[in-house]
Description:
This protein has 71 residues and is mostly beta strands. The chain has strands at 7-10, 16-19, 28-32, 37-44, 47-51, 58-62.
Amino acid sequence: AHYAIPFARKIGAGGALIRLQPRADSEAVASLASGSAFEVLDIAGDWVWGCVGPHGPAGWCEAGDLALAEG
Protein backbone atom coordinates (compact mmCIF):
# COMPACT_ATOMS: atom_id res chain seq x y z
CA ALA A 1 0.00 0.00 0.00
CA HIS A 2 1.10 3.57 -0.64
CA TYR A 3 0.36 6.45 1.66
CA ALA A 4 0.80 10.17 1.08
CA ILE A 5 1.68 12.53 3.89
CA PRO A 6 -0.56 15.61 3.60
CA PHE A 7 1.14 18.95 3.01
CA ALA A 8 -0.85 21.56 4.96
CA ARG A 9 -1.70 24.67 2.95
CA LYS A 10 -4.28 27.45 3.04
CA ILE A 11 -6.63 28.66 0.32
CA GLY A 12 -5.63 32.04 -1.11
CA ALA A 13 -7.48 35.34 -1.20
CA GLY A 14 -9.80 34.40 -4.07
CA GLY A 15 -11.12 31.19 -2.53
CA ALA A 16 -11.19 27.91 -4.46
CA LEU A 17 -13.53 25.42 -6.06
CA ILE A 18 -12.90 21.75 -5.32
CA ARG A 19 -13.56 19.73 -8.47
CA LEU A 20 -14.04 16.05 -9.32
CA GLN A 21 -11.39 16.12 -12.07
CA PRO A 22 -8.35 18.37 -12.68
CA ARG A 23 -10.13 20.44 -15.34
CA ALA A 24 -11.81 23.85 -15.20
CA ASP A 25 -14.99 22.40 -16.76
CA SER A 26 -15.28 19.59 -14.18
CA GLU A 27 -18.12 19.58 -11.66
CA ALA A 28 -17.38 21.53 -8.48
CA VAL A 29 -18.16 19.60 -5.29
CA ALA A 30 -17.27 22.32 -2.80
CA SER A 31 -16.32 25.97 -2.55
CA LEU A 32 -13.65 26.94 -0.03
CA ALA A 33 -13.26 30.42 1.42
CA SER A 34 -9.98 32.28 1.66
CA GLY A 35 -7.90 31.00 4.58
CA SER A 36 -9.53 27.56 4.62
CA ALA A 37 -7.21 24.67 5.40
CA PHE A 38 -6.40 22.32 2.50
CA GLU A 39 -4.23 19.20 2.74
CA VAL A 40 -2.33 18.65 -0.52
CA LEU A 41 -1.83 14.97 -1.33
CA ASP A 42 -0.79 15.07 -5.01
CA ILE A 43 0.29 17.58 -7.65
CA ALA A 44 -0.42 17.19 -11.39
CA GLY A 45 0.76 20.18 -13.42
CA ASP A 46 -1.32 23.23 -12.48
CA TRP A 47 -3.66 21.19 -10.27
CA VAL A 48 -3.43 19.84 -6.72
CA TRP A 49 -5.45 17.00 -5.25
CA GLY A 50 -6.24 16.97 -1.59
CA CYS A 51 -8.85 17.33 1.08
CA VAL A 52 -10.15 19.64 3.75
CA GLY A 53 -9.56 17.00 6.42
CA PRO A 54 -10.10 13.32 7.15
CA HIS A 55 -13.84 13.62 6.50
CA GLY A 56 -13.53 15.55 3.22
CA PRO A 57 -14.48 16.85 0.90
CA ALA A 58 -11.65 15.73 -1.35
CA GLY A 59 -10.93 16.76 -4.90
CA TRP A 60 -8.86 18.91 -7.23
CA CYS A 61 -8.21 22.64 -7.11
CA GLU A 62 -5.98 24.86 -9.17
CA ALA A 63 -2.53 25.26 -7.61
CA GLY A 64 -2.82 29.04 -8.09
CA ASP A 65 -5.79 29.06 -5.70
CA LEU A 66 -3.49 28.18 -2.78
CA ALA A 67 -1.93 30.88 -0.64
CA LEU A 68 1.83 31.19 -0.82
CA ALA A 69 3.56 28.74 1.51
CA GLU A 70 4.76 30.29 4.75
CA GLY A 71 8.35 29.99 5.75
